[in-house]
Design goal:
Blueprint: H1 19-25, H2 36-46, H3 59-65, H4 70-88, H5 96-129, E1 133-138, E2 141-146, E3 155-158, E4 167-179, H6 181-184, E5 190-191, E6 209-210, E7 215-227, H7 233-236, H8 250-281, H9 286-303, H10 308-325, E8 328-330, H11 333-341, E9 344-347, E10 359-365, E11 368-372, E12 383-385, E13 388-389, H12 394-408, E14 413-417, E15 420-424, H13 427-438, H14 442-446, E16 449-455, E17 463-470, E18 475-481, H15 483-487, E19 490-495, E20 498-501, H16 504-519, E21 523-531, E22 555-564, H17 571-580, E23 584-588, H18 593-603, E24 612-614, H19 615-619, H20 623-632, E25 635-637, H21 641-653, E26 658-662, H22 668-673, E27 676-680, H23 686-691, E28 694-696, H24 701-746, H25 762-772, H26 774-781, H27 804-828, H28 841-862, H29 878-896, H30 898-904, H31 911-949
Parallel strand pairs: 9-23, 9-26, 19-22, 23-25, 24-25, 26-27, 27-28
Antiparallel strand pairs: 1-2, 1-3, 3-7, 4-5, 4-6, 4-7, 8-28, 10-11, 10-22, 11-12, 12-13, 14-15, 16-17, 17-18, 18-21, 19-20, 21-22
The structure holds adenosine-5'-triphosphate.
């Protein structure tokens, strides 16, 4: 086979070449597309259809960036000073502290880097899940493929809401409008037409081409891909489009703010500690200066959780992965936090609350009602009239017109694959194809019509029309749409084989028929038609360009179908769960108010008195009236996408955090405006997915509620490790500070070989923070749900992660930790508060150090809830247990292994020491248990009092 010319590099300009010639040059038949093998071959030749990503930062620079924190730099400076002092003093022995501190910092940087890479990988994996897709014709069939797999010569099939995946030459277009702002900056959508352009014109004027990165805002079309990847016009400007950098989430901002605040406070404390030591103990040698300096700076490094932003990213990213496994694909980490605060979920009805498995069960025409049996897409079922097989006659004829016309003004396809009936396209439309097959004779008739033009369906118009030519040359217009809308375009009625005027009585009857179907929860669709001889005169045939909305008049109303779209079984409990969690559910649908209200009632969204507010009423309201309305109304029906935007704005003005679902191209503004835009993964358009923060892989409402729960759990877990880290840090700072003060008061100055008496050494402080504490903190990030997060109201968007209650808890716990640590040291020291101690200062300090580490590890269990006992879900997190056991082993090692004893100035402990350390450390657990018990009792008493008052 000849190789197709690569148009992107050839001199041929597709915009100035006939579509047929472009197809020929690219060796493709526009009616069949490429074969799968040929597409694979071309993909191998041209490479994936991607814009080259920006080069990644080299590893060494990322490692170096780990040291860029000002406090770490300060510590490094202190280390340098200590080395200089050691050199001045004659370089005796080895500068052990300096070596140990640098080693710990390197270890810490490597860990930080690993965290960062994990978070990045998780985010990259999300990008793959939310990648854009395109519809192409391959082997004569429609296929949806990732847009990265498009190749030159592919036949793109474009519909409203599609992202154009590659540059392509149009060969067909029906009312095709493309938004090209991303490429040309032009905000208005441009109408496209396959007619060749003869001059060389700028991109914005190449009406016969569509370009990668733009979006179809209206209409349909077919185009031959002429360029992919960097060869596209978008590729030409791609150097300007560096990969978007993830902005820090509000929580990440709060944490870095917290870091800076702590940094300042701690530097203050460090200075106070250093001055206190100098005053109480007196600085005697340069070594004393270095010891105090290192201690002060290490304290600062320890107390400020530098690793927190990285841990935060990992926890968010892991949460995002868990959500994705449950079909909620979040595009940005920040959306996870917002999800947890959602206070109202506005949801579509069709496909989200319902199954979107449409079955026509009823056809109501002027002569009566036909019932159709059978479920699903298999076209087997009986047509009956009052329980009897439908006989030939006016009713059958009318039903045949309804279903026949309905399956012609239709873009869906029905086919049997391996014995299973499957549909391609809109399920509402496919329902007509299935029903038409159930009613014998209909398909034979429709086969005689060929489509010549169309005005596509849109959620604003709520109807669509096509023009067809019969074998005998006659032209007709066929329309289907929301019956109340369609009836406005009808002046006549089909009655048996006759066409009669649609007088007020007949119109009222038709409306009543539809209303009745709606109240029974049926989705309704009307069908109408008219002979259209006048189309013949326009431009030598019913040309697509001459056919527009103006043809939708003077129609003959044929009848209405009742489509069953059952609610998803999991939705009712999900709505109850949302309500319990203080989240309101609002249904916003294009469907009829009666259908909407009935289904909302069945699902528990509204009670029997609840009503559906029609979109037309919203039009008559100003902002204030709408704000009043959204306070009470939970069902909006027959709305258009523009109403959605107004509803979002009104709810937000009421102070609510709004999650909003959407699927169509016109939903994009509402999705962007909502706090969380949620696009449908299955039925949603590419434009909607692009505008949303989250994509539902299964279109299911219940998935949104799961995602909210997950968002709350993630936020809870973040609070857990904040609490945990700050408990420990507060404990250390207070231990050092109080230790120095008490040492002075008790006269323990210069009691050890190191010169100055310090309750903890710089290396030990760094050990605790950067080694033993990191494991439990990480494990906390994947903690299972300890407190039921769906029993509390949503968190305010601007509520702080660390509130006052938490600060009080941190202060109390920090104080308890420092007191037990100092008491442990005192127990073993001779001449302390508690008599009987006989150990050396080094042993006593090692015991204090160990108590501090153990208390920290025990606090990990406590930090998991502000109110629940640490024993609740005690064994639920095996990572936490792993981390705690590892922490204990590391501590045993640092106390008992001689090389580590030298590095960390520790001394061996015996059995009694270990037991006392463990017992003293456990005191924090009991104190916290008592405090939480008190809190719980208080809370219960308040709840009882409130219940009593009611
Ligand atoms: N393919 C179609 N052709 C003609 N009319 C349609 C088609 N699909 C839907 N309709 C009519 O338009 C109305 C509105 O449809 P739209 O897609 O805006 O909302 P919906 O799918 O009913 O609900 P939701 O907004 O909850 O997804 C429907 O109730 C139906 O009567």
């Amino acid at each position: 086979m000849a190789t197709p010319r690569d148009l992107s590099t050839a001199s041929l300009d597709p915009a100035r070449t006939d579509a047929a010639d472009v197809a020929r040059a690219l060796l493709v038949d526009p009616e069949r597309g490429l074969t799968a093998e040929e597409a694979a071959r071309r993909l191998a030749h041209h490479g994936p259809n991607e814009l080259r990503a920006a080069a990644s930062t080299p590893l060494w620079r990322r490692l170096l960036a780990q040291f860029s924190d000002p406090l770490i730099l300060l510590l490094l400076a202190a280390v340098v000073i200590s080395v200089i002092a050691w050199l001045i003093e004659g370089a005796v022995g080895a500068p052990i502290d300096a070596i140990v501190i640098v080693a710990i910092l390197v270890l810490n940087a490597v860990l930080g880097l690993v965290q960062e890479s994990r978070a990045e990988h998780a985010v990259a994996a999300l990008a793959v899940m939310t990648q854009a897709r395109s519809t192409v014709l391959r082997d004569g069939e429609l296929r949806t493929v990732p847009s990265t797999e498009l190749v030159p010569g592919d036949i793109l099939v474009l519909a409203e809401g599609d992202q154009v995946g590659a540059d392509a030459r149009l060969f067909r277009a029906a009312a095709l409008f493309v938004a090209e702002a991303s490429l040309t900056g032009e905000s208005e959508a441009v109408e496209k037409h396959p007619d060749r352009i003869d001059e060389v014109v700028p991109i914005g004027d190449r009406r016969d081409m569509v370009f990668k990165g733009t979006a179809v805002s209206r209409g349909t079309g077919g185009a031959i891909v002429t360029a992919t990847g960097m060869a596209t016009e978008m590729g030409a400007i791609a150097t300007m489009l560096d990969a978007t950098v993830e902005q820090p989430t509000p929580l990440q901002q709060e944490v870095s703010h917290l870091g800076r605040l702590l940094g300042r406070i701690v530097i203050g404390i460090a200075i106070v500690v250093m001055v206190t030591i100098a005053l109480i103990e007196g600085i005697r040698t340069p070594a004393d200066v270095v010891t105090v300096l290192l201690l002060g700076v290490s304290l600062a490094v320890a107390a400020v959780p530098e690793g927190l932003p990285a841990i935060l990213s990992v926890v968010l990213a892991l949460g995002v992965q868990r959500m994705a496994k449950r079909n909620a694909v979040v595009k940005r980490l920040s959306s996870v936090e917002t999800l947890g605060s959602a206070s109202v979920i506005c949801t579509d009805k069709t496909g989200t609350l319902t199954t979107n498995q449409m079955t026509i069960e009823r056809i109501v025409t002027a002569s009566g009602t036909v019932d159709l049996s059978g479920v699903g897409y298999a076209p087997v079922g009986r047509a009956t009239d009052h329980g009897h097989d439908l006989a030939a006659g006016p009713l059958r004829l009318e039903a045949q017109i309804v279903l026949g016309a309905g399956s012609l003004v239709n873009d869906a396809q029905l086919a049997q694959h391996d014995g299973v009936w499957e549909i391609e396209g809109d399920p509402t439309e496919a329902a007509f194809l299935v029903a038409a097959r159930k009613l014998g004779g209909t398909r034979e008739e429709t086969a005689r019509y060929g489509r010549v033009a169309e005005v596509p369906f849109s959620s604003e118009r709520k109807m669509m029309s096509t023009a067809h030519r019969h074998e005998n040359g006659d032209l007709v217009v066929l329309s289907k749409g929301a019956p109340d809308v369609l009836l406005r375009h009808c002046t006549r009625l089909q009655l048996g084989a006759r066409i009669v005027p649609l007088d007020p009585v007949r119109r009222a009857r038709a409306l009543a028929d539809m209303e009745l179907l709606s109240e029974e929860a049926f989705r309704t669709l009307g069908v109408a038609y008219r002979p259209a001889p006048e189309l013949e005169g326009t431009g030598g045939g019913a040309d697509a360009a001459d056919f527009d909305e103006s043809a939708e008049q003077d129609l003959v109303y044929a009848g209405v179908v009742g489509i069953l779209d059952p609610p998803r079984p999991e939705v009712r409990p999900a709505i109850a769960e949302a309500r319990a969690a203080g989240i309101r559910v609002v249904m916003i649908t294009g469907d009829h108010p009666a259908t909407a209200a009935r289904i909302a009632r069945d699902l528990g969204i509204i009670d029997d008195e609840g009503i559906a507010l029609p979109g037309a009423r919203i039009d008559g309201m100003d902002e204030h009236q709408l704000r009043d309305a959204v306070r009470t109304v939970s069902v909006f029906a027959r709305v258009s996408p523009a109403h959605k935007l107004r509803i979002v704005d009104a709810l937000q003005a009421e102070g609510l955090v709004v999650a909003m679902t959407g699927d169509g191209v016109n939903d994009a503004p509402a999705l962007k405006s909502a706090d969380i835009g949620i696009a449908m993964g299955v039925t949603g358009t590419e434009v909607a997915k692009e505008a949303a923060n989250m994509v539902l892989a299964d279109d299911d409402f219940a998935t949104i509620v799961h995602a909210v729960r997950e968002g709350r759990v993630i936020f809870d877990n973040i609070r857990k490790f904040l609490r945990y880290l700050l408990y420990g840090n507060m404990g250390e700072v207070l231990t050092v500070f109080l230790g120095v003060v008490f040492a002075g008061l008790l006269g323990f100055t210069h009691a050890s070989a190191d010169g100055i008496v310090l309750p903890l050494l710089a290396t030990q402080i760094l050990w605790i923070n950067l080694v033993t504490d990191s494991g439990p903190a990480l494990a906390m990030g994947v903690d299972p749900e300890i407190d039921d997060v769906m029993t509390r109201p949503p968190r305010g968007l601007h509520d702080r992660a660390i509130d006052r209650g938490m600060w009080i808890g941190i202060a109390i716990t920090g104080l308890v930790i420092s007191v037990v640590t100092l008491l442990t040291m005192d127990v073993f020291l001779p001449g302390g508060l508690i008599p009987g101690g006989t150990d050396t200062f080094d042993v006593a300090r090692t015991a204090g150090f160990t108590t501090l580490v153990f208390a920290g590890l025990i606090m990990a269990f406590n930090a998991r809830s502000a109110t629940s006992s640490a024993f609740r879900g005690f064994f639920a997190n095996r990572w936490l247990w792993g981390a705690v056991v590892l922490g204990v082993l590391l501590q045993v090692a640092v106390v008992s292994l001689p090389p580590l004893q030298v590095a960390f100035s520790t001394a061996s402990l015996d059995g009694v020491h270990w037991a006392v350390c463990a017992a003293m450390a456990s005191v924090v657990l009991w104190v916290e248990e008592l405090r939480k018990l008190g809190l719980r009792l208080l809370r219960r008493r308040r709840a009882d009092a409130a219940a009593h008052a009611r």
